Amino acid sequence: xxxxxxxxxxTKFGELWDQSPRVLAKKAVFEAIxxxxxxxRDIEAIFVGNMLSGILGGQxxxxxxxxxxxxxxxxxxxxxxxxxxxxxxxxxxxNSILGGQYKTVAVLGIEKMTDHKPxxxxxxxxxxxxxxxxxxxxxFVSLYALMARAHMEAYGTTEREMAxxxxxxxxxxxxxxxxxxxxxxxxxxxxxxxxxxDPLKLMDCSPVSDGASAxxxxxxxxxxxxxxxxxxxxxxxxxxxxxxSQREDLTSLRAVRLAAENAYKAAGVSPSDVDVAEVxxxxxxxxxxxxxxxxxFGRGKAAREIANGKTKLGKGRPVINPSGxxxxxxxxxxxxxxxxxxxxxxxxxxxxxERQVKKAKIGLTHNVGGSGAIAVIHILRS
Length: 382
What we know:
Number of strands: 12
Oligomer: single chain
CATH topology of the largest domain: Peroxisomal Thiolase, Chain A, domain 1
Shape: globular
Strand content: 15-25%
CATH class of the largest domain: Alpha Beta
Strand order of the largest sheet: 3-2-4-7-1-8-12-11-9-10
């Protein structure tokens, strides 16, 4: 498999009160097309990753809505898979090219969340949870708190080590002008922030965000005017039980392990080959578990390695979440999986400015839906 990323763009993430989804979509897609060296007439299909447009906005028909807004009248599809919607949109777009249906397509990930009440957003997000979890009044922060507690009991992971994830990601975001939070935070600030679901605190949690990201991808025979494109060399999806209570182990996500195993095999690489990764740190414990499931560190060792700076820019390999991750760059849920690909493509092109990972050649994205019911892994190389 060899798919070229010809253009990639993301809007700023944050509380974008003055920008509608239509405006955000146009910004992201037109900038990605401009960077690709192509024109709108070259786009043969549009894949839109989004989770909450029907629940919060009352509009499900996003494919033709954005095709109309963009003036690109081509086949257009909405792809939904909870917080993995963006990654799944990319996966489906890649397969449409590999299957010979299209040559060049655009992938848009988008979400507008801050226009709605917090309780409406929380309820909407739990649409990705199991019936029994909703009936019990659970939210995703409480489900990940259970996972955090299990990891702490199994491996001695501490609250200070989890807080170090947030500190590191805020440092990376301080170098990213399009991140939601550009300010540094201290370990003490994270640890003293209000508890949301013990042991997770406010500063362990990703924020409610608005934003859009887009990529233009093509078969290797149709690379447009881009002389040296970045290549997607693996795209893998796996699933697990919807309910957390049905899983054998709360300290690991089986869907991630399976998707990663298949992606590494398809790309012909191992975890030690990865220079930079964007992982789904919806909560600080999620990044710790991801680094273990992806094979970057042994089981029960990631928290200490992250706290010791092994994944921080300029300190070690792989650098994790140079964009700031979901925690500090922001988490407009439908956009996240596409933003991750944008960041890795930017890194592999050497265009990440102050947050550039030196000599980055191989990158990985890890996008998760729900509490790990679905996972999407992409591997890219320059």
